[in-house]
Amino acid sequence: MKMKKNLIATVVILISICSNASAFAPGNALGVHQSTLSTNGAPTTSFRKNNGAYPSEIHPAAIKRQRKSITSVQTKMGSQALVYGAAVATTFGMQTIGFIAAYLLKTETFYDIFGGVNYLLLALLSAILGATGDGALQWVDDPRKILTTVLFGVSRGWLLLFLSWRAHERKGDSRFDEVLGKGGGTPQPLNFLVYWMAQAFWVMLVSMPMLFVNSSNVIKPGFSGFDIALAVLFFVGVFTEIVADIQKAVWVKRGRLGDFCKAGVWKYSRHPNYFGEIFQWWCLFAFSYSSSQNPLGGYADPLWWAGIVSPLFTMQILLNMQPTGISNAEGKSLKRYYDKCPERYAKYRDNTSILIPFIGYGFIPPFLKRTIFFDFERYEYKPQSGESADNVAKKDENSPSTP
Fold it and tell me: Which of 232, 342, 384, 402 has the highest local Cβ count within 10 Å?
């Protein structure tokens, strides 16, 4: 039920984004008024400037400039509409096909793989379709498009490899046991469909900044210092996630030495992989600012602002939604640590940031930990009777990432 409510909220966000597209439509703001009548009754076109109307016969050059401006705006709108429309159709079409195949085969093995492939397909389609049409800016001519697509591809390519490996290793995902009717239960096709549609929204919303850049026709010479800094930080986020995933996988393969992971970057963050995932999308959203087609800049561009759903939706999934992310990895899932090594784990928890990797977390005041550092009280372990550590560990093993 909680997932359904979050899905409904996401639908509302998308509807709001679509409604803002009208802000790009050419109209009276361009100063063109057609089909007005001249003094002899013949139709003519008027050009408004400084609240004055001038017939086209008197100022043909002005009319020509305006028509050229309209054509330019329509070209930009067409490119953006094509990219976003194709992305929506591809994403929901692909996830629907995945649902049908998975339900007929009664398996969830390729659920995460479909998500990873979907990301890469959107990057490829947007790079191609963003250069479609007369006057459209070619992908190879825009360093911002190239850099964004490459880094996005590296990030989602790693996700695909990692999820494919994990699916092979785990040979199942207990999250889907109930909806698939495993163990003698009644299959729940509608609830299974909710999972696939939630993944469709996840792919589409997270990809928004990338789609914004690849659909842009703005030509700017080189990168600004602002662009370079954000590109570097975006790479840092991607690199952090990859390194954290590898270090955790190696630790698990070696037998989970020390009961909980403190290898590499995990010594400075309890969930560095989630930090990398969240941080990279904030950086890409900010980086996409320079690709805005609005003459006033990105701050006046509703489609650029719509891209903020990428990091916000990622935070919602990883910080608040069950059965994934920190909400799943913390709380009652910490039982096995407090059963096996309560003092060592309590010390590690008190001195290690839940998300942002850094040294000195133990000196941070509790009220700051509970607010800007996201170490919320709901993540604390509260013992519950009748729950075994083995069951908790099994559930955590089938979550997208383990603590």
Answer: 402
Q: Are 355 and 275 in contact (CB under 8 A)?
A: yes
Residue 395 has φ and ψ, to the nearest 5°, of: -65, -40
For the chain, give the mean pLDDT.
81
d(CA 128, CA 130): 6
Band (140; pLDDT cuts 50, 70, 90): confident
| Distance (Å, whole) CA 119 – CA 201 | 11
Query: Rounded to an integer, what distance in angstroms lies between the CA atom of residue 74 and that of residue 106?
Result: 47
Q: Which of 141-155, 306-320, 360-374, 378-392 has the lowest mean pLDDT?
A: 378-392
Residue 112 · residue 203 · CB < 8 Å: no
Q: What are phi and psi of 353, to 5 degrees?
A: -60, 145
Alpha-carbon distance 311 to 177, whole Å? 30
Integer Cα distance of 151 and 189 in angstroms: 36
Separation CA 320–CA 324 (nearest Å): 9
Residue 124: its pLDDT value, please? 95
